[in-house]
Amino acid sequence: MPHDDPTRFLTEALTQPETGWSMGSFGAICEFHHVAGDPVPQRLPGCAVVTARGGLRLDDIAAIRPVAWEALSPRLHRWQQGISLCVEAGRAPMARRDVLTELGPDEGALREADRGAILFDMGLAQPQVDFCIRSRDPDLIALLRAEAGKPLADPDCRAMPAILKAHPHRVALTRIGRVEVFQKIGGPDTGGVSPVGPHSHVLPRLLRAGRSHSANTPIPDGLVPVAGLHPPSPVMDPLGADRDFDPAAFAAFQRLLALWGDPAHGDLKAETWYALAAGDGPDRLAAPQDRFSRIALRVALRQAARRDGPSELLSRWRAAFDRASPAEAEDDDAPGH
């Protein structure tokens, strides 16, 4: 049940098994997900949990400004949803190191056993996250120390091949906390796919875009998203597969949108559903002029289809307003992105 108080909501969400978390930037991110069948995540002091695969800690909940949103999916029977955990723009910046840099023992590690391991900033120069690796492997540490001061993209830098081979922990540090990933890096050793559960992504194509977040996420001016929370979807399971429509999950997220979403988009969706219920045709509504309002209308129509089923009237509305538009749905449906 959502609460007006973000602190209570976020604390309770830590132990919800289908809720996923992410921390990072557009192109460098660590994700934390519970894996079905695994032991229940261990609660740590403060607002933190850890499993054998990874963990999460929120250090400064008071600074968080939640922004709930919905977005398009490339698949016309779906939509995406999430809550961006933002901070005011002036609080967001991290170190923005642009070369591999040793930071010393990670005294803030979630697990006591990891607090002597050596932390290295990968030097990705991201504004709202210090994206790091952590290791006790003496051979890897020696090589990283020898390569410190170089950009990872430097053709002469030996660090990245060594990192991909050794699979050190990944640690995303932001102004509101950290996510740690203990599993292998997705690549040749994992069949080219990310492991189920906690994992990380460093995607140079997205990093080159220089954005703090996806263009499909409506973040208000003056805020910067540093993390994300992904409640259970009414149309996808935690691995991104289709599921039967879940009315309870749908209603729960609509309440979150009412608390932390754009009220104008909520009004537009309500108007759309009212018109459909009244039997009005698509000419009842003028086409929205801004991108995010168009997305809200299209999402409302997809939701009506899954909630109420197909109809000739809904087909006319979708023909008018929800034609496929890849430019407005550039993200995939992977949880946590």
In words, what does this structure look like?
With 337 residues, this protein is of the alpha+beta class. The protein folds into two domains: 1-261, no CATH class; 262-322, no CATH class. The chain contains eight helices and 14 strands. The chain has helices at 6-13, 138-147, 159-166, 204-207, 247-260, 263-278, 291-308, 312-321; strands spanning 20-25, 28-32, 42-44, 47-50, 54-58, 65-72, 79-88, 101-105, 118-121, 130-135, 169-174, 177-181, 199-202, 223-230. Strands 3-4-5-12-11-10-9-8 form an eight-stranded antiparallel sheet. A six-stranded antiparallel sheet has the order 6-7-14-1-2-13. β3 and β4 form a beta hairpin. The longest helix has 18 residues, at 291-308. The chain is elongated. It starts with 5 loop residues before the first helix and ends in a 16-residue tail after the last helix. The model has no long low-confidence stretch (mean pLDDT 93). It holds the Pfam family DUF6925.
